[in-house]
Each structure stands twice: as C-alpha cells, then as structure tokens.
Design goal:
Layout: E1 7-8, E2 11-12, H1 16-27, H2 35-58, E3 63-66, E4 71-74, H3 76-91, E5 97-98, E6 100-101, H4 104-141, H5 147-158, H6 161-169, H7 172-185
Antiparallel strand pairs: 1-2, 3-4, 5-6
Helix pairs in contact: 1-2, 3-4, 4-5, 4-6, 5-7
C-alpha cells in the first residue's frame, strides 16, 4: 500500500481502509471483510501494539524486533525482570511510566502482549531446534551420504525452515539427492 501512493507524512490518505478491503477481496474473494469494522479494528489493534514495541525499543529495554518473524525478541532473564517491575507497580496501584504515561489497563495489556510474543519466540526457537535434531538424525540414517556431507547438509538445510519441511516430505532416495544438491550448491 505504501508503494502505491497511499502513504503521506501524517499516515495514510483518507479511504485507505477501503483500498485495503478491495485489495484483500482480490486475494481472498470469499473473505467478506469490511473496511469498517473489521479492518479498522485490526488496524487500531496493530497501531497499539506497534506503540508498545516502539516504546520498548526507545527505552533501551534490551528487547528488539525480529522483522522476519514479525515479533518482539529479547533475553528471557531481562524479560522476567522487566515483567516483575511492571507487575509490582501495577499491584501497588501505581501507574507504570514509560515513553509517556499509560493507564494501568494499557500497561497490563502491553505486558501480556510482550509475554505472548516472547513465549511464542521461545516456542518457535524450540520447534526449530527439535526439527534440526530430527534433520540430523534422519540424514545420519541415509547410507549414501558421508559424515562430512551429513554435517554440511544439516547446516545448510537446517538454516531454512521451508527447505526442512520439504526435505521431511520426500522419500529417502529423493532426500539423498536433495542433500547432495544443497551441498554442491554451497561452495
């Protein structure tokens, strides 16, 4: 949408929700989403979440943003310490102050949103780690690969979730070919 002239210095031009609705209807003809209330409410929620993310980054909290996975990332220990401070302030009836003072309910929502994002990141990381272990174990059972090829194929295929998923769906003789092609393509 930004590349088609709808973005201006102050946000987006009037009618941008209708534009989004029409573009979505092209891609998903049976979705029947309306600019108001469906898309408008989702944009409102996304803006609020973006505000929380920007606040976290601007306050040098130790959290960051993973643009590929579209989620907040950070060290678990930093998160737990940050969560305790905010939860303690809320429990005492005080207002949490950050990049502008927020209401208690907004602060609780922000903490919950960040907690969900962090837990999701941990889950995704654990799932990827488990898939990589499975990949290595499976490659190790293929008799046509040398030890060096197994290690290299694990490293190369394990870097890409899509390649790993594809690899797991193939019959064994195709897996060998796939692994060898990945190895020969990476010098």
């Amino acid at each position: 949408m930004n590349d088609t002239g709808w973005k201006v210095d102050t946000g987006h031009k009037s009618g941008y929700l209708t534009y989004i609705m029409k573009e979505m209807a092209k891609k998903l003809p049976k979705c029947n989403l309306k600019a108001d209330p469906h898309i408008k409410s989702k944009v409102k929620v996304m803006k609020k979440q973006l505000t929380y993310i920007l606040e976290i980054q601007q306050n040098r909290s130790g959290f960051g943003w993973d643009d590929e996975q579209k989620m907040v990332i950070g060290d678990k220990e930093i998160f737990l310490g940050w969560e305790k401070i905010y939860a303690n302030d809320l429990a005492k009836g005080g207002k949490v102050k950050g990049y502008g003072e927020r209401k208690e309910k907004d602060s609780e929502m922000a903490i919950n949103d960040i907690k969900r994002a962090f837990v999701h990141e941990v889950d995704v990381h654990e799932q990827k780690t488990e898939k990589r272990k499975q990949l290595f174990q499976l490659l190790s059972t293929l008799s046509d690969l040398t030890t060096l090829q197994i290690v290299k194929a694990t490293r190369l295929i394990g870097q890409d979730t899509v390649k790993m998923e594809l690899f797991f769906t193939m019959p064994d003789d195709f897996k060998v070919i796939f692994a060898q092609q990945e190895i020969s393509g990476a010098n």
